[in-house]
Amino acid sequence: MAKPKSRSARDGGQFLALPRVVLDSPGWLQAGHTARSLLIDMACQYTGRNNGRLVATVDLLGARGWKSPGVLGQARRELLACGLLVEVRKGGFPNLAAWHALSWLDLNQTDGLDINPRFYESHYRRSYLRPQPYARPRRQAPAMRGIAGGAAIATPDVAGAQILAT
């Protein structure tokens, strides 16, 4: 006879389930590490009834280590291109946050969306299986003072010339 499982067998109450089909999908494999981290942090907001009202703001995710709005925005754009995240309501200035949905789950929120929930089911659900190409922006080397085009610019040492002249 099998031993009955108890809830005390694992730590904590809530947990995050990432299906294996998502982890093996082309969208997941295309996403970078920063985007994957953001996806996990956003999926932690999911309660079972709020898919379609997940937000990615520095105010909310700052406690989880997200300090830069630029890095957060780039990771969010990458998740949208990879099909792991769907923007269901556009954000706006000054304080209207964009709402997102996890594409491997059904949409729970239906009021106040910018897309039709039926359109979500037919076009965005499981979009991680057909990601759009995404080229991550490359970091540019910091500009060095006095160097243009790989050659040093000759600048007169005015302070040194004045000291020698006196």
Describe this structure in words.
The protein is mainly alpha-helical and 166 residues long. It is 33% helix and 8% strand. It contains 7 helices and 4 strands; from the N terminus they run H-H-H-H-H-E-E-H-E-E-H. The chain has helices spanning 20-23, 26-30, 33-43, 58-61, 69-82, 117-124, 158-165; strands at 85-89, 99-102, 147-148, 151-152. The strands form 2 sheets. Strands 1-2 form a two-stranded antiparallel ribbon. A two-stranded antiparallel sheet has the order 3-4. Helix 3 crosses helix 5. It is globular and about 70 Å long. The model has no long low-confidence stretch (mean pLDDT 84).
Query: What is the end-to-end distance?
Result: 100 Å
Beta-strand percentage?
Answer: 5-15%
Order of helices and strands: HHHHHEEHEEH
Which of globular, elongated, flat, extended, rod-shaped describes the shape? globular
Strands, total number: 4
Low-confidence spans: none
**What's the Cα radius of gyration?**
24 Å
Number of helices: 7
